[in-house]
Amino acid sequence: MRPEISLGELEAKLGEEIGVSDWLVVDQDLIDDFARVTRDHQFIHVDPARAASEGPYAGTVAHGLLTLSLLPTLSESALPKIAGVRSSVNYGFDRVRFLAPVPSGARVRARFRLKTINLRAPGAVLTTWEVQVEVEGAERPAIVTDWLGLRYMEAGAADAPTASREERT
Asked: Residue 16: helix, strand or coil by DSSP?
């Protein structure tokens, strides 16, 4: 069960790393499933023999977009539940960089740092999370991104931020 915190408590953690996810294995079956769904069958993703002999990574690697699409799953084990949230939607990304490959069979995890909390409308709060997706044993993260989430609060939810806030750097 994820811990629950108020929006005010979350706001007090602005600029801090809020959580690190559990490790998740990105195996060839997951890569192949993603290739089927997206119709991206490039050999570096789906052909282990050819990827080993002709590819730049000595084997198959996950699609960058597959790794990015794992963020909701990774966030479940890293981020607290925010009290008073009626619903949440993925609002997009401000910046995405694919810095290192995720080899088939590798384990990944994500680090989440709260970057901003912005009031969008009465009852709507936009959060920006700076996220790094790490590959176990790799020097560089696979992905660095700013991920935006829009939360719709229940009527009368306590602790709503009184103003938009960004971390000070």
From this structure: coil
